[in-house]
């Protein structure tokens, strides 16, 4: 007879800990990667946003205003968002990642909160000793990335969803885009 193992849920000590949202790959060829996820892994189509400019999105990199360009593709499967990012130009944490991982790979995971709770969530990570390494303000969300590579092997992103962001997730979930 197998012994039943119980796991007790601990009290959540962060605002965002129960809101896992996304796994993100930074890749050298976004079309090739999207094709793999669709044809090999059975993902639905991707919402494609190309040539996003950080300077148009209040972007920062290492605490300074930034000027990088990137492609971003999104899809949802099993309730988790898959994000593909391909840097196009300029210096960013995405180009840093590809410099160390030529074939690309999982670069960050993300937790989401509503935009009104974004600053509080960011401050919770800051109070634990982590600083923002990159940030953007998109129409669908405010985002902040933290360097958690030493602890978990990837960066951690906090996403502050706007109303447009909530609608986008609904569209991705239903495939209505």
Automatic annotation (TrEMBL):
Residue intervals of the VOC domain: 19-161
Write down the Gene3D superfamilies for this protein, in alphabetical order.
2,3-Dihydroxybiphenyl 1,2-Dioxygenase, domain 1
Cite the Pfam families for this sequence: Glyoxalase_4
In terms of domain of life, where is this protein from?
A: Bacteria
The name of this protein is VOC family protein
Q: What is the lineage of its organism?
A: Bacteria, Pseudomonadati, Bacteroidota, Cytophagia, Cytophagales
């Amino acid at each position: 007879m197998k012994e039943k193992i119980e796991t007790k849920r601990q009290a959540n000590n962060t605002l965002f800990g129960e809101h896992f949202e996304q796994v993100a790959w930074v890749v050298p060829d976004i079309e090739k990667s999207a094709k793999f996820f669709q044809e090999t892994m059975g993902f639905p189509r991707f919402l494609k946003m190309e040539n996003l400019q950080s300077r148009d999105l209040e972007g920062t990199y290492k605490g300074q205003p930034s000027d990088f360009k990137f492609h971003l593709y999104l899809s949802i499967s099993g309730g988790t968002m898959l994000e593909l990012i391909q840097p196009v130009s300029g210096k960013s944490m995405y180009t840093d990642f590809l410099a160390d991982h030529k074939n690309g790979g999982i670069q960050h995971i993300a937790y989401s909160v509503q935009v009104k709770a974004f600053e509080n969530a960011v401050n919770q990570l800051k109070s634990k000793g982590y600083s923002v390494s990159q940030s953007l303000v998109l129409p669908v969300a405010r985002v902040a990335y933290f360097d958690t590579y030493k602890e978990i092997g990837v960066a951690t992103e906090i996403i502050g969803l706007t109303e447009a962001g909530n609608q986008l997730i609904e569209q991705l979930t239903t495939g209505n885009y």
